[in-house]
Amino acid sequence: MHSGGGLYPIWLLDQPHQITAENLDAAKRLAKDWQRVIEHAAASLGWRYGRGVGDLARVLRIPGTVNRKEGLARPCRIISAQNVRYSYAQLVDALDAAVARIAPAPSPNNVRPSDPATLPAVDRPAGAISPLDDYAERNSWADILTSDGWREHYKQDDVTYWTRPGKATGTSASTNAMGTDRLHVFTTAAAPLEGGESYSKGGWLAARFFGGDHSAAARDLAAKGYGTPLPDPGAEHRQALTDILGGPVPDPPPAAAPSRVCSAEIDVSNSAIAADWLRDEAGRGKLSGLFRRLDTVVHTPLEGEDGYVPLGGENDQDGPAQVRPVTDSTLASRITYTYGIFRWKKVGESDEPMPALFPRSAARTALDVPDMLPNLRPLRGVVHSPVFRPNGTLLEEPGYDAATGLLHLPEPGLEIPRVAAEPTAAEVADAVKLVDEMVAGFPFVSDHFKANYLGYLLTPLLRAMCPPPYKLHAIEAHQPGSGKTLLANLARWIHGGVFRAEMPDDDTELRKQITSILSVTTGPVIVVDNVSGALKSSTLAGLLTSDQWDDRPLGSTGWTRASNDRLWTITGNNLSIGGDLPRRTIRTAIDPGRPNPELRTGFAISDLESWVKERRGELLHALLTIVRSWVAAGRPMRAEKSSDGYARWVRTVNGILAHAAIGGEFDHASTQIEVGSDDDEWGVFLNAVHTAYQDETWTAKGLLADIDMGGLTPTGRIPIDALPGDLADKAAWHPNGPAGVSKSLGKWLSNRTGRWAGGFAVRQAGETRDKAKTWQIVTSGTGGD
Fold it and tell me: In whole angstroms, what is the distance from residue 596 CA to residue 649 CA?
């Protein structure tokens, strides 16, 4: 929320939380501690955040009201919203996780007051306090950091924010966040301290001067008088032996040096040398699973493997594999557990290799410049079954294919028979027969609709040979239970893909889902089930016209780019598709021709899902055979019928179907969507304006002043119901009346300039003296093009 004077957050609960005398204090702490977490996160970005809105008794300003504090009139409004609700337990768990990242809980044995002045005088026997704990008690963070060149930036209650040496201003770290006596580092420029890490005072000393070796730091402190000597566990035993023997006990022979097992492969004694090693090793050897996708280093966990994190909800599925960005932390950990990491340490008179962790600073150096890692191969996509290369050859072998930049990761257990280089007519007929057997139970409205579905099944094999964009595939029926979802899922079970149980309500949420799916998942088929209502989406329309997807995630200053080589599929009953989507959609329609189609029995294949999954290898072999035969015949094409961005794809699929003697035509005119209601209402608006103004010119503001609001007495020449889209409702309820939607109408006119509907179109005619655009209606009889 923006209150007119600042920002504050609101979390929506999924159900009411009853406040009682017993849980009131816990609720207060929850609200207050969330504000402390936000304050800390804001400081890491250089912002200041007050905790004043964390009081449960405080009444926050309501969106839609006006903040008149200090004599001003500022609206309170929602500036960002997500359709997410949380349980009370989720807020508690998320807070605990955030606090743990900022200030990990210290060991109970090391919990001591941070102010030495509050300590009572004690008699310390041997072993009472370690050198590191003694160092922490004797020194405040102010003493430690100021002596090292840090400067206090500002203080907020009990938390102090610091600026690192060499930086003019801004926050680089905090101390005592969430009430802990720890240093939390924000910046990655405070080496050897790690950005995002929390340090105790002893931990800071070890990281700053001893390469992270706490034992070395403790020994150095002990030599300077910190801590108390450890007790001698053998003293009483030796005294007893002395009493028995009547004399001193001889010293035991020196113990043999303990053997140390260290598989010494990678020396990380020097982080710069470790970074050089990683520059050459990334993308080969034991790190051959790393790839460069655009400007990010990624790896690809399969479903069920470590690193695979589902994106969707309870009823959603994300497919066989994911592409996950690699962070410096995950890369350092992966190297540590994959190689023998060591650093040299002096033991007695000699240097010995000691087990070590791969430094995150070296991993971060490599990840910052993926283009400078010579053996990191570019990843253009991940496939899970064979696909055809641009030259018509078949990518069958698992692994990375340099010709296409594709990584072939067959799913475990999938066996596909070898496809003949030149399939015979009998082999092609057998392949078509198997595919027909699979879809025989679906009542396609016509052979053309069946051809649309079979072309949809073939397209994932053509992604490299016939690149996107591809049209949206709409599978529809007149009533529930007809088999739409089952038909959509056949392709997903064969090729792998993503399933979403519903379409997001707004374009903002849709953009987020598209970005997540294209950035992380790998399956070629994406199914959004049970779409209802009128589907109009400029975001979806834009997605379907490009092989690339660009998005700037909320709260980020950078753009995310991903390849869009997927088949986007929706299912629904009596789908209503409008806006710019009809020309970018290919339909498959089925009609059982009876009520209660879900009660049908007597199918040739009773359990189609199990049948398809058991014969997945055979079905892929059949589809590959159909395409391979067409390639071997010289890739014959049908005549070109259009010149849009989909023409090559449509001609390719039609050529494959015709060569295999499969009836119907892919994307036939009879299967295409007629002009939808969006164009109809646009035509109504243009007709009403033409009736009022003929060939006169007008402005959006002037037209809205001529709106008839529908009262008993006409007030204008254009009925309010003629306004397109939701402008009629907005004009009726806007405080300023129709004049309040002038900007929205201007966008409609600009976005649809020259778009014909009902024999009319609108053109810009010029500008007025105050730079307002003027418009004019043209008709097909006036020479408009």
Answer: 37
Residue 411 belongs to a domain? no
| Contact predicate 340/266, CB 8 Å | yes
pTM score, whole prediction: 0.57
- Residue 304 one-letter amino acid: G
Helices 425-439 & 447-458 angle (0-180, nearest 10): 110
Rounded Cα distance between 727 and 715, Å, is 18
Tell whether 609 is covered by a domain. yes
Inter-axis angle of helices 447-458 and 616-632, to 10 degrees? 100
Within a domain: 317:
yes
- The answer on 719 and 628 residing in a single domain is no
User: Is the model more confident about 26 or about 346?
Assistant: 26
- Looking only at the bridges linking them, the beta strands covering 66-67 and 74-75 are antiparallel
Residues 449 and 570 in one domain: yes
Final residue of a structural domain among 336, 352, 379: 379
Tell me: cis bond preceding 469? Omega within 30 of 0 counts.
yes
Same-domain status, 538 and 625: yes
Q: Does residue 210 share a domain with residue 293?
A: no
pLDDT above 70 for 679: no
Mean pLDDT, residues 575-604 taken together: 80
The band of 676, judged by pLDDT with boundaries at 50, 70 and 90, is very low
Q: Is residue 9 part of a domain?
A: no
Among residues 671, 702, 720, which one ends one of the domains?
Answer: 671
Tell me which DSSP letter residue 227 carries: S
Residues 6+ apart with CB under 8 A from 670: 446, 448
How many degrees, rounded to 5, is the angle at CA 543 between CA 538 and CA 547? 155
The string of pLDDT tens digits covering residues 726-740 is 788 788 888 888 999
Range of the structural domain that residue 183 is part of: 108-115+127-223
Residue type, 502: E
Distance between CA atoms of residues 385 and 398, nearest Å: 9
Q: Quickly count: other Cβ atoms within 10 Å of residue 429's Cβ.
A: 14
586: closest CA among 444, 455, 492?
Answer: 455
- Contact present, 514 and 549 (Cβ < 8 Å): yes
Main-chain dihedrals φ then ψ at residue 507, nearest 5 degrees: -65, -30
Q: Is pLDDT of 358 > 60?
A: yes
Q: Which two tokens stand for residue 446?
A: 């016509």
Pair 464, 406: CB distance under 8 Å: yes
- CA-to-CA distance for 149 and 488, rounded, in angstroms? 64
Measured CA to CA, the distance from residue 761 to residue 384 in angstroms comes to 48
Percentage of residues in the chain having pLDDT higher than 90 = 28
What is the reported pLDDT for 113?
A: 30
Q: Is 155 helix (H, G, I), strand (E, B) or coil?
A: strand
pLDDT for position 123? 47
DSSP symbols for 45-63: TT-----GGG-TTPPPPPT
632 and 547 both lie in a single domain: yes
Under the banding of pLDDT at 50, 70 and 90, the label for residue 109 is very low
For 4: left if phi > 0, alpha if psi spans -120 to 50, otherwise beta; the answer is left
* 764 and 662 co-located in one domain: no
